[in-house]
């Protein structure tokens, strides 16, 4: 029992048959080859499976695939433009905010959304915002630093864009 | 081996070899009603074998763990008439399928119902709050539900719709026990009505949990009005210390007319401890819960009082 769903995945239209009881995470990873969202705890505590649905971060391991019919799903695979990494991705690399890397896609999507909501976050704001994501390497210091760096660079870009106008 | 105590290994209640949280290991029929009427019709048809899917942050987990195996899933996320925050003059109405994240972002909730704002902010992380709904938090009827104590102190009313029309239930009559509410299998919670409080009301919510993402060991909400430092009116509610979220009626009664000072607070804390009926579970012991109940009621009263004085 299931149906064909149509949705946008990282900007591209997708149509695929899913069962009623299939989870978005499994469809992304096993049927569509999008493997940046990770299976971590499976019960909504770790944030490794985070994806953006219509721009909002949600947990793909607790979302039925059938529910994203007609929606837009974004994963880390959709961030780079013309093979150039997103500012947030670069900041994570430059600050060494990646150790084993398992939690990284979730953190990067949270950072993207965070900066969209608040371009000038302080440390408390950042830590509060990413508290639904666990890093078992406990690399939080570098992750927070990376998000701050991304914020600085975004501000710089915006001000430069304004100057050149 | 002499002198060594033999410790019996604790047998886990759930056989982890039978339970994984990777997939939902059974099939079900799936519906996406667009109106409350359609949802009620489906519930009437399938009754006890159907489950309402709102945020899914509890339901899907329990389905994965196979604690429940509903044959029919009724997803109410696409019912627009269940998703709103609306000023109705005397009260604020919140649709049952409104996401916690939307409630936390609502200026009116933050200004008028600070304890509810704090409770929602304290819940899980951004992703879960983007999924979980206020109605789901209530209908799940966890004794630890964080939105329950604030709604109890503001004396919210719950609108319930069934095949024979609607009824309104005060929240203090809604919960019957862990996982149990007054909802019949063919009824659906549609909105939460929170009466506006007089301007001089201060409120606060405090929760003790192991880590940020965890459920409460104890949570408490307080709403307070004073004349100078004399308590004029007070409401206190606690969660995770009884089979349902509870009001601390005796403590409230004791406080009215008293001056809010160290001695009064100390006595109030002692009364709270007699009103709670906590149990020991994986999150905490009964003794700890009882002790901490008194402490956080004290803290919440002080915080609410500070907010009144700040205006």
Task: Give your account of this protein's structure.
The complex is a heterodimer of chains A (165) and B (311). Chain A has 165 residues and is α+β, with helices and mostly antiparallel strands. Helix content of chain A is 38%, strand content 16%. In chain A, helix 2 (87-94) packs across helix 5. Chain A is built from 5 helices and 5 strands, in the order E-E-H-E-E-E-H-H-H-H. Chain B is α+β, with helices and mostly antiparallel strands and 311 residues long. Chain B contains 11 helices and 14 strands. Chain B has helices at 36-46, 59-64, 100-105, 107-112, 114-121, 126-131, 134-139, 148-153, 249-255, 262-275, 286-310; strands at 29-31, 50-53, 72-75, 85-87, 91-95, 157-162, 165-170, 175-177, 180-181, 188-195, 202-209, 216-227, 230-239, 246-247. In chain B, the strands form 4 sheets. A 5-stranded antiparallel sheet of chain B has the order 4-5-10-6-7. Chain B is globular, with a radius of gyration of 21 Å. The A-B interface holds A 1, 19-23, 26, 39, 41-45, 47, 50, 56-59, 61-64, 66-67, 110, 113, 129-133 and B 20-24, 26-30, 53, 56-57, 60-61, 64-65, 73, 75, 77, 101, 124-128, 130-131, 212-213.
Number of helices of chain B: 11
Based on Cα principal axes, name the global outline of chain A.
globular
User: Residue-averaged pLDDT of chain B, rounded?
Assistant: 94
The run of helices and strands of chain B is: EHEHEEEHHHHHHEEEEEEEEEHHH
Quick one: how many beta strands of chain A?
Answer: 5
Mean pLDDT across the residues of chain A is 96
* Rg result of chain B: 21 Å
How does the overall form of chain B come out from the CA principal axes? globular
Strand numbers in spatial order across the main sheet of chain A: 2-1-5-3-4
CATH class placement of the largest domain in chain A: Mainly Alpha
Largest sheet of chain B: 5 strands, antiparallel
Span of the ends, CA to CA of chain A = 55 Å
**Number of spatially distinct domains of chain B:** 3
């Amino acid at each position: 029992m299931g149906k064909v769903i149509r949705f946008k995945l990282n900007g591209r239209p997708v149509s695929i048959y899913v069962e009623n009881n299939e989870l978005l995470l499994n469809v992304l990873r096993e049927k569509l080859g999008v493997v940046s969202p990770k299976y971590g705890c499976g019960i909504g505590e770790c944030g490794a499976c985070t994806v953006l649905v219509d721009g909002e971060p949600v947990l793909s391991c607790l979302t039925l695939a059938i529910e994203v019919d007609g929606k837009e799903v974004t994963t880390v695979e959709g961030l780079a433009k013309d093979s150039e990494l997103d500012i947030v991705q670069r900041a994570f690399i430059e600050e060494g905010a990646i150790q084993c890397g398992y939690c990284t896609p979730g953190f990067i999507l949270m950072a993207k959304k965070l900066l969209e909501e608040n371009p000038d976050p302080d440390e408390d704001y950042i830590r509060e915002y990413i508290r639904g994501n666990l890093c078992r390497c406990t690399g939080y210091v570098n992750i927070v630093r990376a998000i701050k760096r991304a914020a600085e660079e975004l501000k710089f870009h915006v001000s430069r864009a304004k100057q050149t106008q | 081996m002499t002198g060594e105590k033999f410790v019996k290994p604790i047998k886990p209640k759930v056989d982890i070899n039978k339970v994984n949280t990777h997939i939902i290991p059974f099939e079900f029929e799936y519906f996406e009603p667009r109106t409350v009427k359609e949802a009620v019709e489906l519930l009437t048809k399938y009754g006890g074998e159907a489950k309402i899917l709102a945020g899914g942050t509890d339901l899907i987990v329990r389905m994965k763990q196979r604690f429940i195996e509903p044959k029919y899933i009724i997803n109410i996320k696409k019912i627009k008439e269940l998703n709103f925050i609306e000023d109705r003059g005397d009260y604020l109405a919140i649709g049952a399928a409104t996401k916690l994240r939307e409630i936390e972002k609502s200026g009116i909730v933050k200004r008028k119902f600070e304890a509810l704002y704090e409770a929602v902010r304290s819940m899980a992380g951004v992703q879960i709050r983007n999924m979980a709904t206020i109605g789901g938090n209530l209908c799940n009827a966890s004794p630890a539900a964080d939105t329950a104590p604030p709604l109890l102190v503001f004396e919210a009313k719950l609108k319930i719709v069934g095949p024979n029309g609607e009824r309104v239930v005060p929240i203090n009559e809604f919960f019957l026990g862990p996982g149990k509410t007054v909802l019949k299998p063919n009824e659906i919670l549609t909105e939460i009505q929170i009466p506006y409080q007089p301007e001089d009301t201060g409120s606060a919510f405090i929760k003790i949990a192991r880590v940020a993402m965890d459920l409460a060991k104890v949570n408490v909400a307080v709403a307070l009005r004073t004349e100078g430092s004399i308590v004029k009116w007070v409401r206190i509610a606690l969660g995770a210390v009884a089979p349902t979220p509870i009001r601390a009626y005796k403590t409230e009664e004791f406080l009215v007319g008293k001056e809010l000072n160290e001695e009064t607070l100390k006595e109030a804390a002692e009364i709270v401890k007699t009103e709670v009926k906590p149990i020991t579970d994986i999150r905490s012991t009964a003794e700890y819960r009882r002790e901490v109940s008194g402490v956080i009621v004290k803290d919440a009263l002080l915080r609410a009082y500070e907010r009144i004085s700040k205006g």
